[in-house]
């Protein structure tokens, strides 16, 4: 056991690294990116600028931002041969699996992006993945819908261009409503980083072996897919839809969530770090109400979500376990109002989390962190002699 005597399952009480990127205070519900509060950034900044802040550590000057955007535009094409990999997937493939595969495939078209040690070489790999992920994300959606693949329009902003790649039709140009662009930009900011969560820890440990940035991000996408993590935003809407189909009575589901013999969990509730509220959930809840009002959408699941959270927040079981709505509880309601299909919800989370994954990978590599390799407490068989199969 190498002298190890205690297990910390799920690393509930383990710090894996020093980091200067994101600060969380779980008791006070504080979230800051490089010292700036997410409340201020969500109100005053935009996703590309926040991405720059997370990755490089400071809000960019006008020239720095212009150069970053120009470098991204230069990298916004994807090798046409990647489409052959996409063609191999059935339409029923979940877009998170497609995105993870295509992201890892990027390495094959940029072999020099693998073992990069200098900030300059890292910069080249960073703008490549930052520019190409939205294209691949839209292709995963277009494949599922049987639509032609688009490259968008480099003269548009990051979010508007993504929406164009998603929803432009050969016979009808997509003109996104400014409310949708602003709401999506805010959602991406709120998902941009969250210190050492499951998928970020995956990116760090994959990157610690000096696997390339694209392979490390691909590993992070796979970890985010799980319904206990980023996959929860899809699971929340599916749960709310089930409650709606079941007559809208959420009391039964609250009882199921409390029943230890029932594997059902209230999706979108609970958090490893936040023990009073998730500051992102509060902002997203207000944004959901604003977006639905602006777009004149009356989505019954928003009422179910409100009622469910009100009852749960007053229930002793949830209060005693510090269970509150998390970032995933309301986000799906906005994605759906924006016309984004449910299987793409976790892809939206990945798009938002990309700058955080990049920033954490870059910090780990620049600090020359050692390869991640934990120990174990061995509980298996003691030494035993081989037995020929005829004697078994
Ligand atoms: C994200 O880490 C991050 O920062 C993640 C994230 C990010 O930005 O990267 O914030 C994004 O992943 C948000 C979480 C999305 N997941 C869900 O909404 C899925 C539902 N939530 C749970 O599975 C759970 O709350 C977790 C996974 C979020 C946290 O799990 P923990 O910290 O391991 O807590 P636990 O499972 O040990 O639960 C503690 C107790 C248990 O009860 P007891 O054994 O003490 O009696 O609370 C109960 C759990 O059964 N519990 C729930 C519950 N969540 C916890 N009971 C019912 N419904 C729930 N949702």
TrEMBL record:
Database matches in Pfam families: Citrate_synt
Keyword Transferase: yes
Endpoints of the signal sequence: none
Superkingdom of origin organism: Bacteria
Pathway(s) of this molecule: Carbohydrate metabolism; tricarboxylic acid cycle; isocitrate from oxaloacetate: step 1/2
SUPFAM superfamilies, sorted: Citrate synthase
InterPro entries: Citrate_synth-like_lrg_a-sub, Citrate_synth-like_sm_a-sub, Citrate_synthase, Citrate_synthase_AS, Citrate_synthase_bac-typ, Citrate_synthase_sf, Citrate_synthase_typ-I
GO molecular function terms listed in the Swiss-Prot or TrEMBL record: citrate synthase activity
Record's keyword terms, sorted: Acyltransferase, Transferase, Tricarboxylic acid cycle
Reaction(s) the record says it catalyses: oxaloacetate + acetyl-CoA + H2O = citrate + CoA + H(+)
NCBIfam families on file: cit_synth_I, PRK05614.1
UniProt family annotation: Belongs to the citrate synthase family.
Matches recorded under PANTHER family: CITRATE SYNTHASE
Protein name from the UniProt record: Citrate synthase
